[in-house]
Amino acid sequence: MTDIRAKTRECFRKLLEKKMNMDPDHVLEWVVDIEQGIYQASKDSKEAIGLEHDLDAEFVNKVSSKIHRKPSGPCIMTVKTKPFTKVYEGIRWKVYCALSTNSGADQLLDRLCEEKTFPDQLGGMTHFQLDPNCYAAKREREKVLEADKSGRIWKPGTGKHGIQIKIPYDVTEEYDEMAGKYVEKVVEVPDSMLTCGKCGMSKTTSYEMQTRSADEPMTIFAKCLCCENRWRF
Questions:
Q1: What sign has the CA pseudo-torsion 83, 88, 91, 94?
Q2: What is the DSSP string of 80-114?
């Protein structure tokens, strides 16, 4: 076994010993299954297509520097990369966060204890499957909600510093007593309390999510409807 896989197992061993009340043999069984699942998911990943499935495989590339002094010109640098290791580490980090820092970490551990999910499956699971309340999952639901707002139209406008933006308007129907029928009205989306730092508009949406420990304040995720800028604080 390579050093990186051994370090991964040690990392998850410490995490499980901290989070779970399990005997050492059971912890070791989970640790082995989790790491093997991460390694298998790395091999199955689209990012690993065409790569040698060797965590020790190192590639050396020659690249020119982007910044250089004018008289001397760009210098050639040697860059060493481990592409398959990068894929493995990305999946490892996803699983580690899902079990430790994500808002649904406790629920995921409960699912493992109840055998609704198994340790060797974690590496191949999506962010949504690991934690339905995580940011990535929230974004997917946000996309669905945005698609459902078929009554919204956009008009071109100009924001701060001349930035080209789209101003949102909602198309609504109101009953006109004089005409005795419903008439269509186009109403500009009202401003919210948050202002976009990119375009200067206040037509924003936001939601809160617990991304840190329970005794710390919730994180606010915001999006500007005019320029699609996203930020959190």
A1: negative
A2: EE-HHHHHHHHHHHHHHHHHHTSTTHHHHHHHHHT
Which residue type does 222 have?
Answer: A
Q: Is 53 helix (H, G, I), strand (E, B) or coil?
A: coil
Tokens of 21: 């009340």
Residue type, 228: E
Cα 92 to Cα 37: distance, rounded to the nearest angstrom: 10
pTM of the model: 0.55
- Sheet with 164-176: strands ordered across: 152-158, 164-176, 181-188
Q: DSSP letters of 186-224?
A: EEEPPP-S---TTT----EEEEEE--S-TTSPPEEEEEE
Average pLDDT over residues 33-50: 90
Domain boundaries, the chain: 3-131, 149-232
pLDDT, tens digit, 9 for 90 and up, residues 165-206: 888 888 777 767 777 677 778 888 888 888 898 898 888 888
Measuring CA to CA, how many Å separate 173 from each of 29, 182, 183?
Answer: 61, 6, 5
Q: Of 127, 132, 138, 131, which Cα lies nearest the Cα of 41?
A: 127
What's the CATH code, domain 149-232? 2.20.25
Nearest to 84 by CA among 60, 51, 59, 49: 51
CA 208 from centroid of its chain's CA atoms: 15
Residue 208 identity (one-letter amino acid): E
How far is residue 172's CA from residue 185's CA, in Å, rounded to a whole number?
Answer: 5
Structure tokens at 65: 């520097």
